[in-house]
Fold this sequence. Notes:
- By secondary structure, the chain is of the alpha+beta class.
- 33% of the residues lie in helices and 22% in strands.
- The protein contains 10 helices and 13 strands.
- Strands 8, 9, 10, 11, 12 and 13 form a 6-stranded antiparallel β-sheet that branches. Strands 4-7-5-6 form a 4-stranded antiparallel β-sheet, covered by helices on one side.
- β8 and β9 form a beta hairpin.
- It is globular and about 60 Å long.
Amino acid sequence: MNLPACQVSSPKDFGRVAVLYGGRSSEREVSLLSGKAVLEGLLRSGIDATGLDVDGLPGSIQGYDRVWMALHGAGDEDGRIHGMLDFLNVPYTGSGLMASAICMDKLRSKQLFIANGIDTPAFEVVQGDIDLDGLVQRLGLPVMVKPSAEGSSVGVSKAATHDELINAIGDAAAYPGPVLVESFVDGVDYTVSMLAGVALPSIKIEPAAVFYDYQAKYHSNRTQYSCPSDLSPDEERHLADLAMHACEALGVEGWGRVDFMIGEDRKPWCLEINTIPGMTSHSLVPMAAAQVGVGFDELVWRILETSGDFS
Length: 311
């Protein structure tokens, strides 16, 4: 895989850059960590960058030439702030309003995966009265239970019994939007990052927990990551093609990360797409970029290039 050459040679060409992070979502903690790391990387490269902890979009944003979006979670990553920046005519990194909104909505994402022939685990939407026996008969046990509009595995749990399912649905229902109950894929997590239209090497993820939850993603030192992963060359190419197909189907641009499960039959199941992946010490996009010789500072530079046409 060959990444295109950087478009920008001088940090001055970016102008004044605002790194937006923080916000009001359940992922505020992670966003603060991502934003701090991104800001430090931009400053090391000589870019005139300032960090803005977003608690509602600051009016002073119009004083900046472009935005590095390091926001995570519902209300911040789902296109709302993208729309405000579009209105203010301030360019920003990554995907636009539509793709950001769709990818934050697990239900619409899965519907588009299915419409585009991309395998995703079977699921049902839970709202109002629940026919629990019918649900279990159709999807089996265990299942994964998820809020439809949260990221970073917030509110996600695995349920192996009726009682656990009831509790899991209750937990997920505490978040806005419908609850998704998804058939369980007994397999291994893999993820493929996309940068400038190129799929980066896949990463195999082996959490010590029951599944790759919030704790395993951001705090645990016991999660094992393999990059390059254990996929054969043919499997690697196939997963990369699936990731790019999924990005195209949902309109993802610039950069992002596509998450999969692969079972014993080696069939990949697409779970979701993250349009603003984490950039913390445990994050996956920097890990994948390093495998193709792109260090963290170059990575944040390249992502900043997605905020405009510099040709």
